[in-house]
Give the backbone structure.
Amino acid sequence: MITLAFESSCDETAVAILRDGREVLANEISSQIDIHKRFGGVVPEIASRKHVESVSPVLDMAMEKAGISFSDIDLVAATRGPGLIGALLVGLTAGRSLALALNKPFVGVNHIKGHICANYISHPDLEPPFTGLIVSGGHTYLIQVKDYVDFTLFGKTIDDAAGEAFDKVARHLGLGYPGGPVIDELAKKGQPLYDLPRIWLDEEAYDFSFSGLKTAVINLAHNLEQKGQEVHPAHMARSFQDAVVDVLVEKTCRLNDHLAYDKIVLAGGVSANSALRKAMEERAGQKGVQVFYPDPILCTDNAAMIASAGYFHYLQNGNKSGLYANPNLTLQG
Ligand code: KG4
Ligand code: ZN
C-alpha cells in the first residue's frame, strides 16, 4: 500500500511517500530554519507563507524521487495538529485536495503520533506496546503507547518544551538557532561545573517544567557578568544539558517501571541529543530495557513519520477523519 503524506505543522515543508508504513520511497524536506534564524525562533506568519510557496515543488520532488505516478497512490495523509494553525492548514489543504482529485482515502494525522511512528521506519521490527518520550521544540510528552494508534498521556510540560529550553538558552548564550544541536556539540567539550536545578515538580508526578531551569541559566550568567567573570559556554552547555537529561531519564524510566514494558522509545528533535540517548540507554539497560530512537533525519519534523502514522491509522480505523478533517490542536485525534 502506497501512502503519500504532507507535514507543515511548524517550519518544515515536507512530503514523503512510503510503502506499507515502514519503507521510505521518498522523504523530501524543505526547511525554513535559515529564514527564522535571524528572529531567534519560528515566526508563524512567515512560516505559513513559506509553506504555500514550497508545498508544490516539494511534492514534485517527492514524486520524482519515488519514481511513481499519482495513480499508484493508495492513501493520502497530512498532519492535522498540534502545530501552528496557519502552517498546518497548508499541508492539510494540499493533502485533502490531492485525495479528492485522485479519489483516494484521506487521513488527518496527529503530529505526536507521527513522531513516535518515525521509529517504525528506523526499526522495521519494532512493535508496540512501549513507553514513549516525545521531546521536540514544541512538545514534551511522556506516554504509554498501547498499540499503533492508541496512547495514554502520563506527563507533559507545564511551561516550556524541552527543545524550546535548548533554543532559548542557546539564544541567551549567543549560540544561534536551533539551539539543540549547538548545545549538544558544545557540551561535549565542557564539564558540569555550574550548579543548576533539576525541576522534579512532585516526586510522583510525570509532568515536566523547563522554564525555571532556563531562568536559572540566565540569572547565573547575569550574576557572573556582574562580578566581571566570563560565562564558559561549553561548561554552561554541559551543566544545562545534564539538568534536562537527568529529569527526562528519571521520569521516563520511572513510568516504564510502572508500566513494566521492555522498551522505551524516544522521538522528536531532542531525541537526537547524544547525551540523552546515552544516559537513557545506560539507565534502562540496567533493567534489561531496550531503548529505541529514530535515524537523525527522522527525529526532527518530516512527512515520512506522518505517512507511517496515517497508514497504521487507516489500517485500524479506516479514513474516519475523512476529507473534511480540520486542524486539530489537541493532543488526541
Ligand atoms: O521535532 P522538531 O523538528 O520540531 C517540533 O516538532 O517542535 O524539533 C526541533 C527541536 C528544536 O528545539 C531543536 O533545538 C531540538 O529539536 N534539537 C535538539 C537536537 N537536535 C534538535 N535538542 C537537543 N539536542 C539535539 N541534538
Ligand atoms: Zn515535531
About this structure: The pocket of KG4 (ligand 1) is lined by residues 10, 136-138, 163, 166-167, 178-181, 184, 268-270, 272-273, 300-301 (CB under 6 Å). The longest strand covers residues 23-31.
